[in-house]
Structure formats: structure tokens, C-alpha cells
Amino acid sequence: MKDFFKSFFAALLALMVAGGLAVFLFFGLLAAVGSSGKPTVPTKAVLIFDLDTSLSDGDRDPEPSEALSEALGGAGSHSQALPAAIEALDRAAADSRITALFLTGNLQGAGPAQLRELREAIQRFKAKKPVLAYNLGWAKRDFYLAAGATTVFMNPFGEMELNGLASEPMFFGEAFKKYGVEVQVTRVGKYKSAVEPFITDRMSEPNREQVQKLLDDIWSEWKETVAKDRKKAPAELQAIADERGLIEADEAKKLSLIDRIAPYDEVLDELKKLAGKQSKDKDFPQITLATYAGIPGEAKTGKTRIAVVVAEGEIVDGEGKSTQVGGERLSRELRRLRLDERVKAVVLRVNSPGGSASASELIQREVILTKKVKPLVVSMGHLAASGGYWISTYGDRIFAEPSTITGSIGVFGLLPNVKKLANEHGITWDSVQTAKLANPMTLTRPKNDLELTRIQGLVDRIYDQFVTKVADSRKMKKEAVHEIAQGRVWSGQEALKLGLVDEIGGLGAAVKHAATLAKADGDYYLVGPEREQDTLKELLKSLGGKPRKLAKPGPVDALAGGLLRQVDLLTSLNDPRGVYARLPFELDLK
After folding, report:
1. Which of 39, 128, 179, 358 sits most deeply, having the most CB atoms within 10 A of its CB?
2. pLDDT tens string 274-331
3. Active site residue 192
4. Is 126 helix (H, G, I), strand (E, B) or coil?
């Protein structure tokens, strides 16, 4: 017995020591997270903008479970918030410690409208200081940003992509039939083609028509911008795209698409000169854009608070993930700002293909209520379509970029079932119910005629409400809205002509207009939704370490990514009534 107690207390003491050590290490790690040194800006520094990232319209705020999953999976993302990047570029242009801007790398994800806003910030920087741009090879989206640089470099071994735009959607209709998954559809609008990937093997003619028009609009804006930068005519770029497509370095130099052919070491020598160093020096003063953006600028001096709220991602019912627009979460943020008397105006930045009709209505209600007590201006980013337009339409003024994808005023219902697949593997269901319509959303069987009729009636009513809301908010006749609705998407420049938006401009223009409505021209500062400091979130993020540059994705990665995006789309379809106001296709520009 004596030996038992001796062993017991020894084990207990060991557990206490181990527990104490674990607590010590845990709080030590917390202290390390909270006390990391603040970066400083060197004198005569070059601002490095590594484009190997994806652009978002706002900072992500993942929940602890998301942060832990990403940390354990090594899924640290290279993401740069667009407003922070633009603010940093404008601040650096006036910062005497910054001598030049260096662009390099290849963007992994960014819409044409986002690129336009970022490019304008780069051009504002160039008006004051040199901008150097270098790449092994220039892709279309990166060259759009860099074409107007002071000097555009290209590696002798590189290639330039100047081959127009293409969209290549993926279809699962035949695969679903093969594996026994059946999909029934209810929808309104001949252009509402979001259901096509799940029921057919190709684009419908109306869908092909709208995608072609959209690509033509975006390509036209690309050509005009790049042609102006390179002192060419848009027709010259079109001829190059039609006849050459991929251009080697020597050819790009002859065509005046670039300024110099140089390997990376020679570009580094140029950067050293700008930083006051010599070629023999091992390094030169520099700071990354991401780091610079994290350094606080001048203290806020304006008197008036203007809040910017970002709605980015699929619109889903409930809270949603940090990559989604949760109907309950966003409506709560708007409600807080509506009731906050310190906030005099709200700018709603929308970058969403839409999603749940119920969640969109929940958000729109708060937009309407907010507009009654203070100005609410909408800034459309890359996407503000379907549900994204639903939550935008009541804004006091709607801003969009020429290549913003918007409209898509239409709704659909997607009704899959796995009866055939399950039966072929020996799985069956039986049912007991008290009414004919007791279980209309089941996945175990096809919907019967009565169920389909009722669901289609619901879709029709929601579409009519959508059209009515647009007519009311945009001061248009309902018939006129129906003509441009039917699920069709429009570019921002076409939406302006049709009356769906009010003005061409980015987030900055929307903020200035909100300040004017709030009678605070030149005397305001921006705030975001107030978030509680969560040390656990920061700790979990830190466990993932600093994101490392991985091998750039190839064609197989792109194919797999397209499949995963479709799977993500299916998992985000969580509207309680099964009705969705969503972009009619997944537009992946190539």
C-alpha cells in the first residue's frame, strides 16, 4: 500500500508539473504572439509588391475552428486586402522614405474590376516616383497592372500572354446521369443558367450569348487600357491576340510591349541604384507592401465617421464562414452601424455572386432601414450579381467599375435526389406522412408534379418580388426591369446604360460620395465593423506559420480547382426554401 501511494503521488506530481509546463508554454506563446516587434520603414527603401497573392475586398476574420483547420492543414493563404493595398500605395507615394515601387509575380485570383482599382493606385504612385515591373512571363491580369510602369522588364527566357479572354465552364450533367444522381430544376429567366452545369453537357444559347457579351466588354476595357499605356491602338493588340497569342521576349520588345529584356540580377542592380546602393552590395533597403500596409499611418483627424462594410463571397443563410456572406452576420453588422450615432454614413462594398434568396432579403431589409437614418452608398467590386444585386439595389447611389459583373436578376431552385444511385447499391427508403406535401425537400426521391408546381410557384413569386424591388429602388417601370432581368448578367458599363447602377468608379469614389451626402467633404475618416479582440484566433493563425511560396499551379491544378469550386457551390446552397438568387455561371477568365 505504501508503494502504491508513493507511485500515485509521484504520478500526480508529474501530471501537475507537465500541466504547469503546458500552461507556461501556452501563455508564453500568447505573449510571443502579442509582443511581436513592430516593423519600421528603412530610409530610401523600395516598396516590393509581390503579386503572388490573391486580392480580397476585405480582411478575413476566420472563426477559431477555421483558423485551426487552416493551421493544421498548412493552408495559410497569400491574400491581400484591396483597400489596404490601395491605401498603402497612396501613403507610400507621399512617404519620403520610399524611393520606388517594384512589381513582380503572378496574381492567383483577382477580378477585372479589382485590377482596375489597383492599377489606378499604381498609376498615382508612378506620377510621383518610379515604378519598375519584372516577370519571367507576363500573364494578362499582371500585365494589365504593369503595362503603365516606368520600366517594364521581361526575362530573356520568358513569354507574354496576349491571347484574349476565354471562359471554359465545367459540366456534370452526363456524369450525374451515369452515377445515378438526378437533378430537377425550377427557375425564372432564360439567362438564369446556374443550374446548367448539373443538368446538361454544354452551354445553352442564351447563356453563350451573355457570356460572349460579357467577355467582349471586359476584353475591350483591357485592350483600351493597355493600348494607352503602351502607346498603341486597341486594334493592334487585337491583331496580336488573333495572330500570335504567346509572345517571346525578343518579339515583345520589338512590338514595344515591354521596355527591357533583362535577367533578374540586372533588375536587382537597377533597384539597388534607386535605393542608393551599388551592384556589389549584397542587399538594398526594401519593405514589402503587406508589411508597409500593416504600419499605421497618420492618426485619424477627421470629425466624421464613415463606415465601410464588406460583403464578399457566397450569400448563405446563417452566420457563414469568413469566406462567405452570412445573412445573419452581415445584417447584424449593418444594424449596429445603423444604431451607432457616431457613424454618419455607410459604404457597402459588394463582391458576391449571390446565393440564398432568404439571406439576401434579410440583408436588404437592413440596407433599407439604414438608408432611412443615414446615407448608404454601394460600391460594386468584381461581382455584384443576383443576390449581390439584391442587397445593393436600395443604395442611395451605386458605383461600379466598367468590368464589374452585375445584374443577373433572376432566381432558381436546384432539386437533386440520389434515389437511383442509392437503389443501385441496395439502399432504399420508405415513408409515412400525414399530408401529400409533408416532405418536399427530400433527397431520396424525385419531386412529384404537385411538389414541382408548388416550388415553381415559389420561385415565380420570389422573382416577381425581385423585379418589383428593383423597379421601386431604381425608379423604373416593372416591365422595363423584366426586359433586362431574366437572369442576364451585365458588365458595369452596360449596367450604367440600363440604369442598374449610377456611376462608374471604385471604392474611393463611393466613399467620397458618402462623405458628400453626410456633409463631411474632406473632414472624415473610415472605420470598419467593430470586432472583439480574440487572442485565441490570433494564436491559431500563428500556428500555421508564415505562408510559404509554393509551386505555381499548372493545368491539372486549374482543372481540380474548378471541380472543387463546384463542390463548394453545392455545399453553400443552404437556403431554407431551396431558392437562390445567384450568378448564372462560374466565370473563370483565362
Report:
1. 358
2. 999 988 888 899 999 999 998 887 766 778 999 999 999 999 988 888 888 999 999 9
3. yes
4. helix
